[in-house]
Design goal:
Length: 180
């Protein structure tokens, strides 16, 4: 009996290790790619039905993780960088998805709202955001992190912008250039 118990414990340890590796593989990939990403690149945290896009610049990684956990981890990772900052977009449709059609949507909306409360996130119709991704994917890299989420219009899109140069600084520069 002790030998069987040891084998069961060992099998459990192996499974736990493999599960841990699978859950953090996308985080390792994000950490690895982030130094290469700059302004005009995108990171999208998407639901499980999000399509696999075929543009050459779009890379999709299955996270096998919860949506809010991935959003939180991406935001935390980005907060530690100096070279980029996120401009966040969410689907405008999310505000109107009823709980009766998508159980859990209210709790998700509330949790996402709390998570993004200070981010200045913008809501746009889903198709407008997808068009922006398609256009950017022709020239720039887009990292799509697919989650286990099964509620529609829950994706969070982060367009990366320069972390050490603000929109206001760019505006002032353009004004100076116009005066020359």
């Amino acid at each position: 009996m002790p030998k069987l118990l040891r084998m069961i414990c060992f099998a459990g340890l192996v499974l736990a290790t493999l599960s841990s590796v699978a859950q953090t593989d996308w985080q390792s990939r994000l950490t690895q790619e982030l130094p290469l990403l700059g302004h005009r690149n995108w990171i999208a945290v998407v639901d499980s039905a999000y399509p696999l896009q075929t543009s050459a610049g779009i890379e999709t990684i299955e996270t096998d993780a919860e949506q809010l956990d991935v959003v939180r981890a991406v935001l935390d990772t980005l907060s530690k960088t100096k070279h980029v900052r996120p401009v966040i977009f969410t689907d405008a449709e999310l505000k109107l998805v009823p709980e009766s059609d998508a159980p859990g949507v209210t709790a998700y909306r509330d949790s996402l709202g709390n998570l993004l409360s200070t981010s200045g996130a913008q809501s746009l119709p889903h198709e407008q955001i997808i068009s922006k991704l398609d256009e950017a994917g022709r020239t720039f890299h887009i990292l799509v992190l697919k989650t286990r989420m099964t509620i529609p219009y829950t994706s969070v899109f982060l367009r990366l912008d320069c972390g050490y140069w603000t929109d206001e600084q760019e505006k002032r520069l353009r004004e100076r250039m116009g005066k020359q």
